[in-house]
Write a structure and sequence with these properties.
The protein is an all-alpha fold and about 240 residues long. It has helices at about 1-40, 45-50, 55-80, 85-90, 95-125, 150-155, 165-175, 180-185, 190-210, 225-244, and strands spanning about 135, 145.
């Protein structure tokens, strides 16, 4: 269990770093977009051209919000700070509290798994419809995605592959989850985030049932004995300091 806690803490640090990076990126993009729009209103010609290259900004901000929301939700579950109606558990005894937490946590994990499956199917359904901007007409009359079309065909049509997106798409294709567009790809954060929350809920539920062997779960509002001892010792230490 301690090894699993260490792994979870490591994953949580990665989630926090990723959420922070996405949030900072959103702030920078939103600030640049707002600044260019203000310059455009003032009649600055180059700002209008630059703003045209920011056509992706709105989609990035929209999907970035999705990333921050689900990464934040996963972090909340990891630190046990997610929204929960736990008044009954708090008013119950240690063993009853363990049973309640065990049942509700396992149920929440099952719900997260079901939601992850539904979202994944929905995202894949959207990915099956390739927009015209990412669809290439082949010489034999067939059609292919921009990332899958032969290089010779792209050269003939004066097109090039978006390297970063195609690299991510080819990686996700290993799991039969190839997105059709970058916007579709950014939605892929939902299923793994829900599955990670499901694993955390399930481990929490199993841990609650295992705690029955030791008398159940303590009240979450109760400080550990060591903390209480330190808190009671602090005033005495302060009084001795003043006397001296």
């Amino acid at each position: 269990m301690e090894l699993l806690r260490r792994i979870d803490r490591g994953i949580s640090r990665g989630e926090a770093f990723l959420a922070t990076a996405v949030l900072l990126g959103m702030i920078v993009v939103a600030a640049l977009q707002a600044g260019l729009r203000n310059l455009t209103n003032l009649g600055v010609s180059w700002a209008n051209e630059a703003l045209a290259n920011f056509a992706w900004a709105d989609q990035f901000l929209q999907k970035g919000t999705l990333w921050v929301a689900f990464l934040g939700a996963s972090l909340a579950v990891s630190s046990n700070k997610h929204i929960a109606i736990d008044i009954l558990a708090r008013l119950s005894g240690r063993k009853t509290r363990a049973v309640i937490v065990g049942i509700t946590s396992i149920a929440a994990g099952i719900v997260c798994i079901a939601f992850a499956r539904v979202f994944f199917m929905s995202i894949m359904n959207i990915a099956s419809d390739i927009p015209l901007s990412y669809e290439i007409l082949l010489p034999d009359g067939g059609r292919a995605h921009l990332c899958d079309a032969p290089a010779a065909v792209l050269a003939e049509q004066g097109l090039s592959r978006p390297g970063l997106f195609c690299g991510i798409r080819n990686f996700l294709a290993i799991f039969d989850a190839a997105p059709a567009t970058p916007e579709n790809g950014m939605q892929m954060i939902i299923p793994p985030a829900l599955l990670l929350m499901a694993v955390r809920f399930l481990f929490k539920g199993v841990g609650a049932f295992l705690s029955l062997r030791n008398g159940g779960l303590p009240d979450p509002d109760d400080a550990p004995v060591g903390v209480q001892a330190e808190a009671s010792a602090a005033p005495a230490s302060a009084n001795r300091t003043e006397e001296s």
